[in-house]
Recover the amino acids of this structure.
């Protein structure tokens, strides 16, 4: 876990940015999240805390997508399916009276990993656009499966009796407790992804993104590494789903529509590809902008849409790219 | 499972498939020739429907409304191309997804802004209203037959254009190797614009045709966009013939699956379980079809040779 402090030289193959920006930005981001509740206490505390919690949950989902999208060039258009799996693991177990967070979390992660393994193994047969579409197909299958689960609410979704119980007690009930639990998960995911990206595994993954044939020629089977990354990304997104269900205390098929998968891609690209903390910044920008604009007008999408187009046309490398010449 | 119902649902499936083809044809050409992922193709279908509705209301005549909607949809597509899309052709796919996603957000909201969130209603034109007896005791709405006929007409026209004209030859060549076509002295930008405008008009035409039988509402293109992508991926990107076959297959499988999945399952399961599984399975069928086809043929049924 100390990769942050002592990165191996090979981790620095991205155009070298000043150390301040490389480490400064993520540290700033996490410090801001850690201190935000204190600032929030000045104003509409519950509202700000729940908004920021949502930002962090989406940041986990987007970061997991960045792992395969940014570092592996695997454009998954069905990533929201894992949000759904994580959420439904909570919902289905809770409706059978199993409310232990530990059991629910294990089920969420296990089911996500299994789904990622099976669909990933099939999807990896295809390349490029066909990969985008086959991941979309699996996402849609799961979406329609969820809408037909009439025992668990079908189209309408499922309301949870309460948040998951830790050690038999409702420790996650308070806004603050839940906020810091989510922040802990985000930090854990970030450190995990960071160390994965910096490891030998991550280097092979990035190598396969640049040139799969050459990686094969020097004796690596990209398939196994890409599948591994896909399973890891799916599992982490399952964690985000688990948290999302707990935050809203509600589970519905709407968590896994294709539009949601599209939003996750938008968040990752908006923040800046292949940087991990870019996904956090993207999630914050996306959700906060949505919140602010929708406060001004109900037609906020008429502002947000063109803004996205402008970002693509004039700000390559997303928000991180705008902040400095990191992406050249 | 009565024969009457089977025939009617088959015709419905054909009609759905034809509409899908009209949307997918433009999408597959834009994708195949320019290597451009246009998520905003679905909103062009929606815009076509809204234009038809608006012009029909204005002129009081659906035929006239359709006639006015087509050039407007074409012009609209060209404006989008000049303003936004042509700056994205040499970007990578992710940038294209992001920008066209922005266009979807904007246009879905814009039609809500202009026409309101409530669905618009377009009357079926007088001459095509009512039903005819296509077999003894079997009535079918004339308008839906008209959609099938119009769609088949467009498909034939498209076949002629793509396979037997000079522009079509360039489009086919572009789908195989666009830089080479450009190197041979063809103004590739103009070709791209032509293809794009034509695709937008076809999608608009599809939207205008379904306006009288579906509700015209914001976001109506979103799900069809995904189905159109399914179609072009099954058919093989860049192949109009593939899109035609895949569109009919998807239309039929989806429509028939929704009506008969439970009935067929009842042969193997008890009726409660059958209707439950059938309802779950029916909407998934086309995605299962697509995943299976891609598993065995990772570049679709009719891949364009490169």
């Amino acid at each position: 876990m100390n990769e942050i402090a002592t990165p191996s030289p090979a981790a620095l193959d991205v155009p070298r940015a000043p150390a301040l920006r490389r480490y400064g930005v993520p540290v700033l981001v996490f410090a801001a999240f850690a201190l935000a509740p204190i600032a929030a206490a000045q104003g509409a505390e519950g509202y700000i805390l729940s908004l920021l919690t949502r930002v962090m949950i989406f940041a986990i989902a987007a970061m997991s997508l960045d792992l395969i999208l940014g570092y592996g060039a695997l454009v998954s258009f069905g990533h929201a399916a894992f949000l759904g799996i994580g959420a439904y693991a909570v919902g289905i177990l809770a409706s059978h009276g199993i409310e232990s967070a530990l059991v629910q979390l294990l089920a969420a992660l296990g089911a996500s990993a299994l789904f990622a393994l099976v669909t990933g193994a099939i999807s990896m047969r295809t390349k490029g656009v066909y990969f985008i579409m086959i991941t979309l197909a699996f996402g849609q299958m799961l979406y329609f499966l969820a809408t037909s689960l009439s025992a668990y609410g079908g189209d309408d979704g499922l309301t949870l009796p309460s948040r998951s119980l830790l050690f038999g007690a409702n420790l996650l009930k308070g806004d603050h407790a839940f906020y810091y639990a989510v922040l802990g998960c985000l930090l854990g995911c970030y450190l995990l992804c960071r160390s994965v990206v910096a490891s030998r595994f991550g280097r092979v993954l990035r190598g396969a993104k640049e040139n799969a044939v050459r990686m094969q020629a020097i004796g690596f089977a990209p398939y196994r590494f890409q599948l591994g990354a896909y399973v890891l990304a799916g599992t982490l997104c399952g964690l985000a789903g688990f948290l999302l269900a707990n935050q809203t205390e509600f589970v519905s098929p709407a968590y896994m529509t294709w539009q949601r998968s599209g939003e996750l891609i938008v968040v990752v690209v908006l923040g800046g590809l292949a940087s991990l903390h870019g996904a956090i910044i993207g999630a914050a920008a996306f959700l906060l902008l949505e919140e602010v604009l929708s406060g001004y007008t109900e037609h906020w999408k008429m502002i947000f849409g063109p803004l996205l187009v402008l970002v693509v046309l004039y700000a390559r490398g997303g928000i991180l790219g705008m902040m400095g010449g990191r992406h050249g | 499972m009565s024969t009457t119902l089977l025939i009617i649902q088959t015709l419905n499936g054909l009609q759905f498939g034809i509409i899908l083809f009209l949307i997918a044809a433009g999408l597959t050409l834009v994708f195949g020739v320019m290597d451009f992922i246009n998520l905003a193709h679905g909103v062009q279908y929606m815009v076509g429907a809204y234009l038809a509705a608006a012009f029909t209301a204005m002129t009081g005549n659906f035929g006239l409304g359709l006639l006015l909607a087509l050039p407007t949809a074409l012009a609209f597509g060209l404006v989008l191309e000049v303003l936004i899309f042509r700056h994205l052709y040499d970007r990578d796919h992710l940038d294209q997804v992001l920008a066209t996603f922005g266009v979807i957000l904007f246009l879905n909201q814009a039609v809500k802004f202009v026409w309101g969130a409530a669905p618009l209603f377009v009357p079926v034109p007088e001459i095509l209203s009512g039903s005819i007896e296509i077999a003894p005791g079997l009535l079918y709405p004339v308008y839906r037959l008209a959609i099938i006929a119009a769609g088949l007409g467009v498909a034939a026209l498209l076949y002629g254009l793509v396979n037997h004209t000079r522009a079509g030859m360039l489009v086919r060549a572009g789908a195989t190797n666009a830089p080479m076509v450009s190197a041979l002295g063809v103004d590739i930008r103009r070709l791209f614009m032509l293809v794009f405008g034509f695709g937008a008009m076809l999608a608009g035409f599809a939207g205008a045709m379904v306006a009288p039988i579906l509700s015209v509402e914001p976001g109506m293109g979103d799900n069809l966009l995904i189905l159109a992508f399914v179609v072009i991926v099954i058919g093989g990107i860049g192949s109009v013939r593939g899109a035609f076959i895949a569109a009919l297959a998807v239309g039929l499988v989806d429509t028939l699956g929704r009506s008969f999945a439970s009935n067929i399952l009842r042969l193997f399961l008890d009726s409660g379980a059958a209707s439950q599984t059938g309802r779950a399975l029916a909407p998934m069928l086309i995605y299962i079809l697509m995943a299976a086809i891609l598993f065995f043929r990772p570049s679709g049924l009719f891949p364009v040779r490169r």
